[in-house]
Design goal:
The chain is an all-alpha fold and 127 residues long. It is built from 1 helix and no strands. It has one helix at 11-121. The longest helix has 111 residues, at 11-121.
Length: 127
């Protein structure tokens, strides 16, 4: 703090006191500026920390959603695999039935051909 001026000081002493007080004012102003910058930096750091916390929470939520989606995808894949197994079994049955039907049709064709040839050789029946 500034001292009370003394009435009995010389001009040199008064000038020196003035210059000293002036330097103290400049130093106080610089200190106040630095303190203001430090306060601004602290506010920015606090805001950044809040944003980092929000980002971390969002990332954790995204991880949880991805995990849940992976579980659903796995379930869907298992269901699709089961459906494919059932379709495969059905296709195997269809193939077996088709093979059987083909053999039956082939035999029916042979029988019809043989009957035709027999009837042909006998001169076909006369109605």
């Amino acid at each position: 703090m500034a001292k009370e001026p003394e009435a009995h000081k010389s001009a040199g002493e008064l000038l020196a006191n003035w210059r000293s007080a002036e330097r103290d004012t400049i130093a106080s102003h610089a200190a106040a500026t630095v303190a203001n910058f430090a306060l601004e930096a602290a506010v920015a750091a606090d805001e950044a920390a809040t944003e980092v916390e929000a980002a971390a929470m969002a990332a954790a939520e995204a991880v949880e959603r991805a995990r849940a989606a992976a579980v659903r995808a796995r379930t869907a894949a298992l269901q699709a695999a089961e459906a494919a197994k059932m379709a495969h079994a059905t296709a195997e049955g269809d193939k077996a039935r088709t093979n059987h039907n083909e053999k039956t049709a082939h035999l029916a064709e042979e029988v019809a051909r043989d009957r035709f040839h027999q009837a042909q050789s006998e001169g076909f029946p006369k109605d």
